[in-house]
Amino acid sequence: MKISYHGHSVVKIMTGGKTILIDPFINGNKLTDLRADKEKPDVILLTHAHNDHVGDTLEIAKENDSMVIAPVELANYLGTFGLETVGMNLGGSKEFDFGTVKYTKAFHSSSYTTDDGDVIYGGMPAGILFKAEGKTVYHAGDTELFGDMELIGKRNDIDVAFLPIGDFFTMGPDDAAYAAELLKAKLVVPIHYNTFPPIKQDPEQFRKLVKGSDVKVLAAGELFEI
């Protein structure tokens, strides 16, 4: 399984000949190396409805007939635009031909703001457990620290965890480091930082705080294998 990071919370997974794109916020993301018109994912996974996570889903999915998997209310909304969507909810899992997707809890908010300024309720925010090739990837989405991360770690042998460290809107470096201890992931990658002034952080400081897990601080476009 090949995985790459592309700024903010954008993660790409390549497995079994399929490309999965998580939270494809590209246009407006000054830290990404991607171009929305060049991306051709088979699947888009969304953690919640905020515009900096839904991002360019509509454009990319329409252009490539990508399947969009999202919390059910968000999936229903995106389905009104003619997208192929699968709406899931917290605790639910489904096996697809590219791997298994399970939604976990996240403590945050979730709404989508249209170009006209209308605010659409996006259902519950979520984290994602993705399993394929005998590996487990956890993308925490936007969340604060919460005790059930320990349960997620006990119930799943997590190979890599993508954790927000930006503070202000999500947990900051201290809480994210404690989350890493609860999850017991083999590898931790910081996300959701430095995109906007309120979430400016030093990922190297986060690395120093983490105990018991390896940490990769990735540049946009950097790829690794698990």
TrEMBL record:
Molecular functions per Gene Ontology: hydrolase activity
Domain Metallo-beta-lactamase: 7-192
SMART domains recorded: Lactamase_B
Domain of life: Bacteria
InterPro entries documented for this protein: Metallo-B-lactamas, RibonucZ/Hydroxyglut_hydro, UPF0173, UPF0173_UPF0282_UlaG_hydrolase
Pfam families (alphabetical): Lactamase_B_2
UniProt keywords, alphabetically: Hydrolase
Family: Belongs to the UPF0173 family.
Matching NCBIfam families: PRK00685.1
Annotated PANTHER family: UPF0173 METAL-DEPENDENT HYDROLASE MJ1163, UPF0173 METAL-DEPENDENT HYDROLASE MJ1163-RELATED
Name of the featured protein: UPF0173 metal-dependent hydrolase DP120_15995
Organism of this sequence: Planococcus halotolerans
Taxonomic classification: Bacteria, Bacillati, Bacillota, Bacilli, Bacillales
